[in-house]
Automatic annotation (TrEMBL):
Pfam families with a match to the protein in the record: Glyco_trans_1_4 (PF13692), Glyco_transf_4 (PF13439)
Protein name: Glycosyltransferase
The keyword Transferase is annotated on this UniProt entry: yes
GO terms of molecular function: glycosyltransferase activity
Length: 678
């Protein structure tokens, strides 16, 4: 992946600096007052969460001082918060190219490429940047942190240790190496690296050493004493994050004890998720919260149980990524309160009695638990819910310990896809121990939204598959009324590309969903059926590449890219076949919604996708999720375009029946209540 995209290297999402109107060049280096003003402006916009406005103001300042790296870096941080990391990636790449020693920019590029396209692409990026291997300072830190991002710890350790053996830049290299080891949680190794510089007495501030190194060494010794006081010895010092997390979990589970049996109506429920962005898990959270709320207000039973409520939602944040509040209005219009626990001041959370037993080691927990645990525990101790429902792996990690510390009687861990080791770019070493320890406690249950996910989690955790409750997604009928300019947009496409049949999709345009392959298949189908046209609903980091790819294939006039749309039902009613080519999935809502609209589907067997249809009746499951063949995709789609109106009506009827019977909202709500009680 090249570092330079279409824009020249001297642009960072804004125009380059130009001379003043009188022809005189502006100063290339800001004075102290201007620098202080820029830092204050950045801090103010972060505090007020006015990221887009701050990005514009900082862009203007960076344009005035085009060679001042700091202003460009601050501008990109604000763009990142305003636009989201995938959309801001091109800007980070240009920043890394323009200022080659900006380690933050390059490491962010590596981290983002890792999450979007995998380890091989991230490794290739590092090798292209450093073709001769480890560089000298000041680039050595950038090189080491980049390889740390992709998990190449052995490479980093061997290189830095060799430099220390040669006594090359000993203080700087030792400080770098110790910092990386500390971040991994290996306190013993970090301390040993620093003590090699000059053995020092066992005190907190050896005066004979470099000041920075002395501070690092003192902090390491303090942390090791904290571990020792909790009965955690040398083994814990080599794997601090997992050891501290396990110790905190075990002690919190012991204090929580065995919750009393659930009797009578279920009381307050708090659901946790990272945000309310436009994702499938978020949509199901909203469907569940709204459905349970309406049922509770009606006073009727939900399955075999009753809910007094209320149902509430808590998120990490709604404004730290674009459209993070996409579903907020659905909740607030139903009278459901939404809290952002990240807004609880850290000092207030740390002083809460819920974390009294672990307050001194909170900073030793792995991220994001170090920042989230006290806030989650404080929020829950105040609300005192009967049930906490944690959605997705990331929230189980962030909020699981906090829920136990708050002594919540019932905790539901809701997983939506394959387990973390199946997605290495998102895996964390703490996950396996975290799930196993949580599930050892009474009143904590695991639920999955597909049989596939239930099997995989059970195998991964070494538990009986029967312990994983399967709660299929419940889908509400989508309205077909257009919103915004959708009807005008569609009318223009009808005029441009009148067609007998339309092939469509609704997806995030990212590497997992493979929109470029989808367009390749469209081109192949068009070669056989020139009357076809295609609609792609969605947005994402590959949006611009999709437009360019369609032009390169010569099919741009037959493809409509709608962007992100709130009126999915309106677009679905124009489709004749729905196609999804994901690498991995949980239980894709879009496949269920398409069938509920009477549309047959074609999908890879990713995750639980095959469970959403009757293969050969309401759609076709392709043989391969790893490398779908364009011939197979085209043949499957064309086979679902019968000329007979009777055949079309039969497929539509069967698709609706499967969607409504298997994925009923009422069934999902009933199964959810069972998880809350049984």
């Amino acid at each position: 992946m090249p570092l330079i995209h279409d824009e020249p290297a001297d642009t960072l999402g804004h125009r380059a600096s130009r001379p003043d109107g009188d022809g005189s060049a502006q100063p290339s280096h800001p004075d102290r007052g201007t620098r202080d003003m820029a830092e204050a402006m950045f801090a103010r916009h972060v505090r007020m969460r006015t990221f887009a406005q701050g990005a514009r103001e900082m862009d203007s300042l960076a344009t005035r001082f085009p060679t001042h790296e700091r202003f460009h870096l601050l501008a990109m941080r604000l763009h990142d918060r305003s636009e989201g990391r995938p959309a801001a990636l091109a800007g980070w790449m240009r920043l890394a190219e323009r200022f080659p020693h900006c380690g933050e920019a390059f490491v962010i590029v590596v981290r983002t490429v890792l999450r979007m396209t995998g380890r091989d692409a991230a490794r290739a990026l590092i090798k292209a940047r450093f073709p001769d291997g480890a560089p000298a300072l000041p680039y050595l830190g950038m090189w080491a942190r980049a390889w740390e991002e992709v998990g190449e710890h052995a490479r980093v350790d061997a290189t830095l240790s060799a430099l220390l053996e040669k006594r090359a830049m000993p203080v700087d290299v030792a400080s770098l190496h110790a910092g990386l080891l500390r971040r991994r949680g290996d306190l013993s190794a970090a301390q040993a690296v620093l003590e090699r510089l000059q053995p020092a007495p066992d005190d907190d501030a050896p005066a004979t050493q470099d000041g920075g190194v002395a501070d690092q060494l003192a902090a390491l010794r303090r942390d090791r004493r904290l571990l020792a006081r909790r009965g955690l010895g040398d083994t814990a010092a080599r794997n601090m994050h997992q050891a501290v997390l396990r110790d905190c979990l075990v002690s919190a589970i012991a204090r929580r004890g065995t919750p009393p049996a659930m009797r009578g109506p279920v009381g307050r429920v708090v659901m946790f998720n990272g945000s309310l962005g436009a994702g499938g898990a978020e949509r199901q959270l909203v469907n569940t919260a709204v459905g349970l709320t309406h049922a509770a207000r009606a006073g009727g039973a939900i399955g075999d149980y009753r809910l007094d409520g209320p149902v509430e939602v808590a998120c990490r944040a709604l404004d730290d990524r674009p459209h993070g509040d996409f579903f907020l209005s659905d909740l607030t219009s139903a009278g459901i309160s939404v809290d952002c626990y990240s807004q609880i001041p850290a000092d207030v959370a740390r002083s809460d009695t819920a974390v009294g037993g672990i307050r001194d080691v909170l900073h030793l927990l792995p991220a994001p638990l170090d920042a989230a645990t006290a806030r989650v525990a404080a929020l829950l101790r105040q609300r005192r819910p009967q049930v906490v429902h944690l959605w997705q792996d990331g929230m189980v990690l962030a909020a699981g310990l906090g829920a136990v510390l708050a002594a919540v009687p019932r905790i539901v861990l809701s997983v939506r896809s394959a387990p973390p080791p199946d997605r290495p770019e998102r895996d964390r070493p703490e996950y396996h121990m975290l799930y196993q320890t949580l599930l050892s406690a009474p009143g904590i249950v695991l639920a999955a939204n597909s049989c596939f996910a239930a099997r995989r989690y059970a195998t991964w955790l070494g538990i009986d598959e029967a312990r994983v409750r399967v709660i299929y997604n419940g889908v509400r009928p989508l309205g077909e009324t257009p919103r915004g300019d959708s009807s005008v947009f569609m009318a223009a496409f009808n005029a441009q590309a009148p067609a007998a049949r339309t092939i469509g999709t609704v997806m995030r345009l990212d590497d997992n969903k493979r929109p470029l392959l989808w367009l390749d298949c469209a081109a192949r189908m068009l070669a056989q059926r020139p009357d076809l046209r295609f609609i792609m609903v969605g947005d994402g980091p590959l949006a611009q590449q999709c437009h360019a790819h369609a032009r390169g294939l010569g099919i741009a006039d037959r493809v409509l890219f709608t962007g992100r749309r709130p009126d999915v039902g309106f677009w679905l009613r124009h489709f004749d076949v729905f196609v999804l080519l994901s690498r991995w999935e949980g239980l894709p809502n879009v496949l269920i919604e398409a069938q509920a609209a009477g549309i047959p589907v074609v999908t890879t067997p990713a995750g639980g996708a095959a469970e959403t249809l009757v293969d050969g009746v309401t759609g076709i499951v392709l043989p391969d999720a790893l490398a779908p063949d364009t011939h197979a995709v085209s043949a499957a789609v064309l086979s679902l375009l019968p000329e007979s109106a009777t055949s079309v009506a039969t497929i539509a009827r069967d698709a609706r029946r499967v969607a409504t019977e298997r994925f009923s909202l009422l069934t999902m709500l009933g199964k959810t209540m069972e998880a809350y009680v049984e």
